C-alpha cells in the first residue's frame, strides 16, 4: 500500500503516469492539511459527536462547543476525503472514521492525536539530513510528550494485540516472559491471558514506566505482568531465565551493532528451547514498500537508527547462536511482522530423545 495521489478516472491516471499532474502540490500542501484536519477533528470530538446519528453543522458546533463557520470548512474537507459523508444538511461518519476513530477498545484515536509529536520532530528533518544529528526522542521528550507517546503506542497495540497473541509462537509449558521496551504492556497482557501459566516482566526506561503503568493497571493483571525499570542497552538479563523474550517496535531505535550485541545477551537470558520474538514494522528485502521506507527515514531521524529487514534480524539471531525461523507476517498495522528464533537445547550426545526434542522445537515455532 502507498500514500499519495489517487487518480479518479482514466485520464487522470494517464496524466499522473506521464508526470503531467503537478503532484508536489497534492503531496505537500494537500497532504499536510489532510493530516491536521483528521487530528483536529479527533481532538475536538467531532467524530465522537457523530457516533450515534447524523447531525447538522449547528448541532455538531453546539455538541463540541465550536464555531460553526470554520467547522463547516473542516467538515467539508473531511467529507470530500471520505472520513465523513454529507447527506443534504447533515454529516455522518464514513466507514474509516466509524471503524478506527471512535472511542472503542480498538480505536486509533490516541495514536492519531499522538502523531502531533511526530509533527514536531519532523520539523527537524532538514537539520538531520544536513548534519546527521538525530533527535534521540527517548532522551529528549518532555513529560507531556512521554504521556502522549505511551497512549499512542497503546492505541496502536489495541488493533493488533489479539492477532499478536494468536500468532506469537510460545514454547510449550512456558512460564517466564521478558518484554523489552514493552511500554503499556498490552502484548504481554494478551499473551498472558492466552497462556495462563505465563508471567511477564516488562523492562522499560523509568520515564516510560511513569506514564505507561497507569495504562497497564487498567488491565488488572496484578503480578502476572510487572515492570522492571532499566535500560536494555546495559541491563544484565541473567542466564537461562526466560522461556520467551518479546522485543516489539524497539530495534528500529537501535543501530546494527547495538542490536547484534543485544541479541547475544538475550540469547544468554533464554532457557534452552526458548524463543526470541522480534516484532515490528520489518522491511521485506527488495520490496517496493513505500511506508516501510518512510518509517525508515523517520526512525533514522528520531533515533539515529532505522527499519531493519527480516534478513538483518535473522542474521543477528544466527550470530548470537539462535536458530531463526521463517518470518511471520502480521499485516496489522501494515508492514508489521515477527522474526522468531529458537534457542536449541545444547547438543549432548546423539540420542533419539535429543533428536526428537530438536524436531519438536523446530515444528512448534
Ligand atoms: C515504539 S515504543 C514500543 C512499545 C511497545 N513495545 C509496542 O510495541 O507497542 C518503544 C519503547 O521502547 C522503549 N525503549 C527505548 N529505548 C529503550 C532502552 N534502551 N531500554 C528499554 N526500553 C527502551 C521506549 O521507552 C518505548 O516505550
Secondary structure blueprint with pairings:
Blueprint: H1 10-17, H2 23-43, H3 46-49, E1 55-56, H4 57-64, H5 68-79, E2 84-87, E3 90-93, H6 95-100, H7 109-122, H8 125-131, H9 137-140, H10 143-158, H11 161-167, E4 176-180, H12 186-194, E5 199-204, H13 206-217, E6 225-229, E7 242-248, H14 256-269, E8 270-281, H15 290-303, H16 310-319, E9 323-324, E10 328-329, E11 336-342, H17 352-364
Parallel strand pairs: 4-5, 4-7, 5-6, 7-8
Antiparallel strand pairs: 1-3, 2-3, 8-11, 9-11, 10-11
S-adenosylmethionine binds at residues 138, 153, 157, 181-183, 203-205, 208, 231-233, 248-250, 253.
Cα-atom Rg, whole angstroms?
Answer: 23 Å
The coarse overall form would be globular
Rounded to the nearest angstrom, the distance between the terminal CA atoms is 29 Å
Total strands: the figure is: 11
CATH topology of the largest domain: Rossmann fold
Total domain count = 2
* Low-pLDDT sequence parts: none
- How much beta, percentage-wise? 15-25%
Number of helices: 17
**Helicity level:** 40-55%
Query: Which architecture of the largest domain does the CATH hierarchy give at level 2?
Result: 3-Layer(aba) Sandwich
**What is the CATH superfamily label of the largest domain?**
Vaccinia Virus protein VP39
Helix and strand composition category: alpha/beta
Element-by-element helix/strand order: HHHEHHEEHHHHHHEHEHEEHEHHEEEH
Ligands in the model, by name, code or SMILES, are: S-adenosylmethionine
Average per-residue pLDDT, rounded, comes to 93
Described by strand count, sense and barrel closure, the largest sheet is: 8 strands, mixed
Give the CATH level 1 class of the largest domain: Alpha Beta
Amino acid at each position: 500500500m502507498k500514500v499519495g495521489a489517487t487518480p479518479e478516472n482514466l485520464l487522470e491516471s494517464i496524466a499522473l503516469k506521464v508526470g503531467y499532474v503537478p503532484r508536489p502540490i497534492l503531496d505537500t500542501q494537500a497532504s499536510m492539511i489532510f493530516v491536521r484536519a483528521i487530528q483536529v477533528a479527533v481532538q475536538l470530538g467531532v467524530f465522537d459527536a457523530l457516533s450515534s446519528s447524523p447531525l447538522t453543522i449547528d448541532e455538531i458546533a453546539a455538541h463540541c462547543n465550536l464555531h460553526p463557520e470554520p467547522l463547516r470548512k473542516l467538515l467539508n474537507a473531511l467529507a470530500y476525503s471520505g472520513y465523513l459523508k454529507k447527506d443534504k444538511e447533515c454529516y455522518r461518519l464514513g466507514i474509516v472514521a466509524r471503524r478506527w476513530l471512535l472511542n472503542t477498545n480498538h480505536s486509533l484515536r490516541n495514536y492519531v492525536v499522538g502523531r502531533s509529536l511526530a509533527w514536531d520532530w519532523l520539523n527537524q528533518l532538514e537539520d538531520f539530513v544536513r548534519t546527521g544529528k538525530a533527535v534521540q526522542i527517548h532522551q529528549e521528550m518532555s513529560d507531556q510528550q512521554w504521556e502522549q507517546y505511551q497512549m499512542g503506542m497503546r492505541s496502536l497495540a489495541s488493533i493488533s494485540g489479539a492477532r499478536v497473541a494468536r500468532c506469537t509462537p510460545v514454547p510449550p509449558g512456558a512460564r517466564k516472559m521478558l518484554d523489552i521496551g514493552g511500554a503499556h504492556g498490552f502484548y504481554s497482557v494478551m499473551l498472558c491471558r492466552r497462556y495462563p501459566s505465563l508471567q511477564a516482566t516488562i523492562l522499560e526506561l523509568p520515564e516510560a514506566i511513569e506514564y505507561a503503568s497507569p495504562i497497564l493497571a487498567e488491565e488488572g493483571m496484578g503480578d502476572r505482568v510487572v515492570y522492571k525499570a532499566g535500560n536494555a542497552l546495559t541491563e544484565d538479563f541473567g542466564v537461562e531465565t526466560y522461556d520467551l523474550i518479546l522485543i516489539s517496535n524497539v530495534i528500529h531505535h537501535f543501530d546494527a551493532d547495538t542490536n547484534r550485541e543485544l541479541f547475544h545477551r538475550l540469547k544468554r537470558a533464554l532457557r534452552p528451547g526458548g524463543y526470541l520474538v522480534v516484532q515490528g514494522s520489518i522491511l521485506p528485502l527488495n520490496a517496493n514498500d513505500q511506508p516501510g521506507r518512510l518509517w525508515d527515514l523517520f526512525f533514522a531521524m528520531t533515533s539515529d537508527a532505522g527499519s531493519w529487514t527480516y534478513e538483518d534480524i535473522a542474521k543477528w539471531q544466527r550470530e548470537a547462536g539462535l536458530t531463526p525461523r521463517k518470518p511471520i507476517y502480521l499485516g496489522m498495522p501494515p508492514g508489521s511482522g515477527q522474526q522468531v528464533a529458537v534457542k536449541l537445547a545444547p547438543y549432548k550426545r546423539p540420542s533419539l530423545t535429543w533428536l526428537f526434542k530438536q524436531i519438536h522445537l523446530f515444528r512448534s515455532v
